Amino acid sequence: MTFSSQLRTITDLHGPAGRLEALLHTGSNDAPFAALVTHPHPLFGGTMHNKVVYHAMKAFSAFGLPVLRFNFRGTGLSEGKHDHARGEIDDVRAALDWLSREYAKPILFAGFSFGSYVGLRATCGDARVKGLVALGLPVSAAGRDYTYEFLPTCTAPKLFLSGDHDEFCSSAALEEAAASSPEPHRCIIIPGADHFFQGIPSSPAPKLDQMQAQFRLWLAETFHMA
Residue 208 falls within a domain, yes or no? Predict the structure, then answer.
């Protein structure tokens, strides 16, 4: 089924550091959920316009869900300064609050890389969030280590989705992280894909479409959407 969606610039999303630049794909009026997508590390070029973030948005939009993307503090036109994954957690919570006010629907979350780490920390245990997707979950990147001791508190359904050549998280580390969280969870590793779901020399074609297809399949099966 094809759903029509309009793109809106959001001007009233504010976090503790100030206004957050945001875009909303409106979705259908009878959508069962609203969705939030967060972007990779802003000090390394990550924004809400990242290709993986865009494909995650498209996966949600395929089911008519309204989808909010925003730039973390200090990124793009968002006010404030980068806070090394501390204040960014509050940015995610501000976005959740905005979605709750705007739609009064249960929320699904997806984050990519840094956005998955920050977003999981913000959404785990939040009763409003009914499903969590971690794309390219990082463990070690550019001298930064990411730990997931909080995952046992994530009781909502979860999808962990990465490439088998992810530079920042081995397949074994991803499977270990997923296994530390309560059921239901699913861990999918895409062959021939790097951290950004691009190809590798032996399999050079981009894998973004495969990522989106697996994402959509999980949504359909887990939340009975068509």
Answer: yes
List C-alpha distances in Å: 88 to 6, 20, 73, 187.
Answer: 27, 11, 7, 25
Residue 5: predicted pLDDT? 79
Can you tell me the distance from the alpha carbon of 72 to that of 86, in angstroms, rounded to the nearest whole number? 11
How far is residue 143's CA from residue 41's CA, in Å, rounded to a whole number? 13
CA gap 50, 40 in Å, rounded: 8
- Residue-wise pLDDT tens digits, 150-202: 999 999 999 999 999 999 999 999 999 999 999 999 999 999 999 999 999 99
Peptide bond into 184 cis (omega under 30): yes
- The length of the chain in residues reads 226
Domain count of the fold of the chain? 1
What CATH number did the domain enclosing 83 receive?
A: 3.40.50.1820
Domain that holds residue 186: 7-223
* Nearest-angstrom CA–CA distance, 107 and 130: 6
What is this structure's pTM? 0.97
